[in-house]
## 1
Amino acid sequence: MKNTIFEKEKLTALFEKLSTSSTILIFGHKSPDGDSIGSTLALHHYLAAKGITSQVIHPDGFPNFLKWMKGTDSILCFDKNPSEVKELIQRAEVIFNLDYNEQSRVGRELGELLTKSEATKVMIDHHQQPDDFANFTFSDTRSCSTCQLVYEFIEANDDLRLISSEMGSCLYSGILTDTGSFRFSSVTEKTHQIAAQLIAAGVNHSAIHEAIYDVNTPERLKLLGYTLNNKLEVLPEIKTAIISLTKQELVKHNTQKGYTEGFVNMALSMLGIDVAVFVKEDDKMVKISFRSKGEIPVNEFSKMYFNGGGHINAAGGASQLSVEETVNKIKKELPAFLSQLTQ
Ligand code: 5GP
Ligand code: MN
């Protein structure tokens, strides 16, 4: 089935604009994941194959297990190069916003710069309730990943032949990581067809699985062991499991970027658990990850109590409280939220 969000007239108008623009920027969201890195780089490679130059910009750094993707060396990070990024935003004629639905997802300062910019904005995204900030909005909230949408964008332009193994590897990685390795209900027949096409284009799927998932270090496994042993709270009456880590605990275990990736899914993998929460103290705030099974909209809970959002089964938010107070707030508010769902 063709994705109808990529209408021909819109694409023609967009490519007309791109062909006359000299500064084209592609932004991903804060704390980038596989879909964010994969989709921004894949779009960059695709535009390059069409003779269009672009610059990928991310608010901050990304975990080592994503650094093998082609083009990661050329990504500009706002936290490391603020003046260069500010200067580029001032000159920008087109700004792509990938894998996020509101400009604040790039962080407060960068979000304000994007909001002020008069560049033509393009959004390609799959998160619920997209903000209306872009001149070209390509949003499909049923899609499993932004990488699937970038593939469909390329397909709608009749350009599938331009997908190289490197571009395909970026797309495959985003689909892989945003679908929990093809397991979430957002995966469709089309997703598997895309995976097949990417493998046909030269993508080595088993090497990608290895590069992304077989990256444990003794420190990470010890941190996981410590967390599951000491910091896992099971609340059977609301089918919920909560894990939490303070800054002190993270420092003590010599935690590197990306070490806690996937911990929340461990909690969700328990029999009889429908909601998993991971509360983690970051440098400036407490970050919360929510996961759920079935019809439990954790994005709504996160929006209601933690200024967050995301997808029905995978969402995030932030808290100004301490880790302990945040966990207590979740324990206080979640039972009522869950019980009103079944009424
Ligand atoms: P994660 O738990 O992996 O950080 O995020 C899960 C999902 O929720 C991702 O799709 C992510 O984009 C979204 N998300 C995470 N944190 C926030 C947040 O603070 N605000 C919003 N709106 N979405 C978030
Ligand atoms: Mn995504």
## 2
Amino acid sequence: MVSDNELKVVVLGLGYIGLPTAAVIARTGSKVLGVDVTQSVVDTVNSGKVHIEEVDLDGLVSGVVARGNLRASTTIEPADIFVIAVPTPFAEDHAPNIGYVLKAATTVASVLKPGDAVILESTSPVGTTEKVRDLLAQLRPDLKVPGKTGESADIAIAYCPERVLPGRILVELIDNDRVIGGITPRCARKALAFYRRFVRGACVTTTSRAAEMTKLTENAFRDVNIAFANELSRVADTMDVDVWEVIRLANRHPRVNILSPGPGVGGHCIAVDPWFLVHADRANTPLIRTAREVNDAKVDYVIARAEAMVAEHPGLLVACLGLAFKANIDDFRESPALKVAAALAARFGDRLHVVEPYAATLPAAFDDTGANLTDLDTAIEICPIMIVLVDHDMFKSVPLDERADKIVYDTRGIWPDQPRGQFRPEPLRLAG
Ligand code: SAJ
């Protein structure tokens, strides 16, 4: 086996997963080349800086770039291991788009040689790794690909999904267990040897198809369980019961563990990946599809409730706490909080004060609305109405005496001691 210092690794895609992965591998001493189609990303990384916000990533990248173990380029070079970490978005009809994966595989094909391993990490529909294999076979007829020629293949191809949580990526990249699916068992073993170089968690091997479905299953599981919590929160509103109290009490049962309701499910994983399963087998996924719909509908429900609350108090200033898709991160993509705040801004304009410690300016959705970006202290001072949309630590720590007389809609349950009773709109019954 080659030593860490001799191993050459190419990571394709320097995004939220690719860049931390490249940096962690480079830290082991391997020579890593990050390949990205965006020149500015390449330039940023080569200058030892990062273009994404992630805890401790800046220090790690500047260190491995300074030591010469991580470089970036728009052009691929030969290597021993190729890790593909490019996006897999979906279209309007929820059909997954694996175009970026196939494009990355085409790039890899141009430099592939016997003995190399190609590992796909992007969340992908079941069967994608086999498609990568078929494409490589077509582009490089001189190489024996796995699964077509028995175990005597020239190259290894495997699927190993990332499972890291934004905000904890560098910790989870090392500590989480990894599922490694080979096109053949030999492919899986080859990929396993690579992950063992930097992963402390258990590395478990399986087939590429099982590994692909495992990744989708993890996020669908979470989505279904959040949908249950979101549905409960609507029922509790109708019943005039505090859903947070009910969940706390129910979770005292040894076999019950209900997740947290919120203003909907955001981010680019949990709200996306379940559709890959639904799209692949619509007839057998009514629960997964309904969960998606329940979570999407929760945003509209929260908007309607918040609008009713603000409309009931003409003239009062309103604070919207948070825009990020979840706590303590600066990521606003597919954020339900942003959707709610933007809808309120469109209707109530300059009555609205948005507090978001992770934003320097308001996003484009607030252009021409008159809404303001305000700091927390000012919002507490001037806004009698407070709508909690994100459970940032900074918001959680506001003591009761600073908010006891506020009119509060706490969609995240961060202030369990908040007196109830100031706001009792008629229960809303929305379609969907
Ligand atoms: N949310 C709730 N209630 C909860 C938990 C989450 O409303 O009880 C909301 C969050 O506020 C957020 C969304 O769900 O809007 C998703 O947040 P998250 O923290 O649960 O997950 P992500 O999207 O940041 O990361 C997920 C993780 N998957 C699982 O936990 C199964 C992560 O491990 C994956 O690597 C990542 O998706 C991915 O890349 O697929």
